[in-house]
Structure prediction request, 230 residues.
Amino acid sequence: MKTIPIQPAPPGDDEEIVVSLYAAQEKIQSRSVTGVFARWRWFFVWATQLVFYGLAWLPWNGRQAVLFDLEARRFYLFDLILYPQDFIYLTGLLVISALALFLFTAVAGRLWCGFTCPQTVYTEIFMWIERRVEGDRSARLRLDAAPMSAAKFGKRALKHGLWGALSLWTGFTFVGYFTPIRELAGLVASLSLGPWQTFWILFYGLATYGNAGFLREQVCKYMCPYARFQ
Prediction:
């Protein structure tokens, strides 16, 4: 990133100087990386997504294993049932998790950012889809420079279609932790989703699509509060 020095205004010149806090840059086409850290990253991609997508479908004693029922004000965590007055335990857990995050980062580097942060995980998945559809880095650079054609449009449409499908499935799964996911699937199949369910599925899906598909490292540089601490 180039830094452009700002020249001071001449004496007596009252013209305002506008300084942009956002540095625009071209899209980064990354190369495929192999090695021990890349394998560990994919291990955590699989582990986190199997938990996220699979846990919502896990039955437990006649109900969903993990369900945050806001309407009934009950949070189900396997055999544990929490009520609003039990939030002190959740607060303590969050405080311990935050302290552990800073401790592990200070001792062993940016473990969270590099391996388990949702931004990292979904960006890795989206980049894998991009490589499978459009090819390696050199092929993607040639595709970017090529004029629009039927082949280029087809590849771009397929890539964005897969990105959109994964994003909507992610939003559906997220809402499935607050509305029983089997009931939610029935509502989707019958096209009878409520307004709030529709809103949060689309909102979370759009956030996944935009952050992992387009913003990527810009989220870490300009939006993530944890990066400010680092």
Notes: The radius of gyration is 22 Å. Residues 36-57+112-229 form one domain. The mean pLDDT is 85. The CA atoms of residues 14 and 126 lie 48 Å apart.
